[in-house]
Amino acid sequence: MLEADVKRFGYRRGECQLAEVAVSLAGGRAVLLGPNGAGKTTLLRVLAGVHGYDGTLRLDGETVRPNRSRPRRYRAAVGWLPQHVTPFPGLTAREHVSYIGWLKGLTPRAAASRALSALTQVGLEGKANERAERLSGGQMRRLGIAGVLVHDARYLLLDEPTAGLDPRERDRLVAVLRDIERTRSVLVSTHDTAALIEPSSRVLLLHDGRLRFDGTADQFTERHHHGTPAARLQAAYSSFVPEE
Ligand SMILES: Nc1ncnc2c1ncn2[C@@H]1O[C@H](COP(=O)(O)OP(=O)(O)OP(=O)(O)O)[C@@H](O)[C@H]1O
Fold it and tell me: What ipTM was predicted for this assembly?
């Protein structure tokens, strides 16, 4: 289990971007919602170890210092997929994923063989020998997920993975998520509620750097009985984030 209790985080001294945000990941999908600027990317970056923060952090019951120099086991257990995946210039998809595995501490041989299984898991085995920078936007997101799977991260932090994808690529990505979250925890930030919230999902909602909701998808929509599932999700969201 990954448990983070962010008492306070700000990019600059005196500023506060996140306050009293407690998150625990223990398997399955947790969907992180919130309007632009709510702090979703910031929270994922904080969990990924890009920034230190004031608060506590525990991995599998053991306390980890929530500063930037987190232990290797933390860095191996937690994988972060930023909004934009940048391919290493000149490398093939397989080399790109192998390189990430090597950076995360695998031997070159293990990294190369695991890269192929990770690419297969995200449906990109046919692109293994293509230059990574030639992949489409959706394939690039899946390449990013392969980079997280190659070192067997158990906690995946995915920042708006479906943004800008066409419906077919989005469905592929959702299928990849369903497959990986059977054995891992995925925290996914998104504006795409209809595509990513499923009955078994947990929903977290951030607004102005504070957690306004943390519960099951059913609890999220329980006061909104009418309309399609997408309309109920939208109504629930609007009740936490009123229009300005
Ligand atoms: N590197 C940075 N330095 C200073 N402030 C930042 C930095 N990155 C983000 N912020 C600020 O932190 C706040 C939260 O931003 P963040 O990107 O986490 O929001 P978000 O919920 O991910 O938004 P979006 O849905 O638009 O991606 C915003 O006010 C933003 O301007």
Answer: 0.97
Distance CA 74, CA 181 (A): 19
* Residue of 17, 21, 45, 189 with the most ligand 1 atoms within 8 Å of its CB, for mutation: 17
Domain boundaries, the chain: 2-240
Instruction: Evaluate: CB of 183 within 6 angstroms of ligand 1.
Output: no
The average confidence (pLDDT) of the chain is 92
pLDDT digits (tens, 9 = 90+) for 72-99: 889 889 999 988 889 989 999 999 999 9
For atom 13 of ligand 1, the residue with the nearest CA is 37
The CB of 45 under 6 Å from ligand 1? The reply is no
Which strands sit side by side in the sheet containing 62-63, from one edge to the other?
18-25, 2-9, 54-59, 62-63
DSSP state of 88: P
CATH class of the domain whose range is 2-240: alpha beta
Question: Tens of pLDDT along 186-217?
Answer: 999 999 998 999 988 999 999 999 999 999 99
